[in-house]
Amino acid sequence: MRTALVTGGSRGIGAAVSKRLAADGFDVVLTYVSKPDAAAAVAEGITASGGSARALALDTSDPAAVAAFFAEHLKGADLHVLVNNAGITRDGLIARMKDEDFAAVINVNLVGAFTCLREAAKIMMKRRAGRIVNITSVVGQSGNAGQANYAAAKAGLIGLTKSAALELASRNITVNAVAPGYVETDMTAGLADAVKTAFAERIPLKRACSPEEIAAAVGYLAGDAAGYVTGQVLGVNGGMYM
Questions:
Q1: Where are the domains of the chain?
Q2: What is the spatial distance between Cα 29 and Cα 3, in angstroms, rounded to a whole number?
Q3: Where are the beta strands (DSSP E) in 47-112?
Q4: Burial class (CB in 10 A: 0-12, 13-18, 19+), 33
């Protein structure tokens, strides 16, 4: 069975992507940092539905930990899909942003994605096949006040996607990105109703996106139908950015 690795798979987009790829027939390895129970629940739900999944701890901001993870858990596996979804936020205005808050977001959201991509590419290049999908964001395309670190990391993911696509195409490995807009997740659940309404009013389709809609886009890019698609950024944002 072909394997799919989903980083940050314990909730929100990552959980939805894990479920979608399992439904598509992949053996899913989903990772977590701080929510082992939530990650286990996702894996158990997949298994109960007839799929194959396991939840494993991984701090993607630690390059040595990433290398060790691949050596221990994915050596010899038929790794066909990598979804770089792990991410954090440390929002704040530029003038007040602490160095450590900027660095933390870059290290998890961009450096971590690069490290996972590099290790996955080593496996996929030998097999001469693979699909890599990076979860970027609409703010990586448009920018966003109060999120200079997050927007920089997500914009960097777009550059990484295109560069990796060029390098890996000769080995039949596609590299694409999905750029969500305003998504209903744990991160947005705590927002006041007035703030949610204000967000929705900025979106031409006048509603938030569900994690499952993002997962559908990832499923397409990870599947056979997207075999001739590489180096692209698929915006799933309701028209928020065009």
A1: 3-236
A2: 7
A3: 52-57, 79-84
A4: middle
Question: Which amino acid does the sequence have at 31?
Answer: T
Is the pLDDT at 185 greater than 90? The verdict is: no
- Kindly name the residue from 32, 150, 220, 241 that is annotated as catalytic: 150
State both tokens at 90: 């440390």
pLDDT in tens, 104-139: 999 999 999 999 999 999 999 999 999 999 999 999
pLDDT band at 3 (very low <50, low <70, confident <90, very high): very high
Residue 220 is a catalytic residue: no
Q: Tell me, what's the pLDDT at 187? A: 65
Residue 39 and residue 14 in contact, taking contact as beta carbons nearer than 8 Å: no
Widest distance between CA atoms in the chain: 52
Q: For 3-236, which CATH superfamily applies? A: NAD(P)-binding Rossmann-like Domain (3.40.50.720)
End-to-end CA distance of the chain: 38
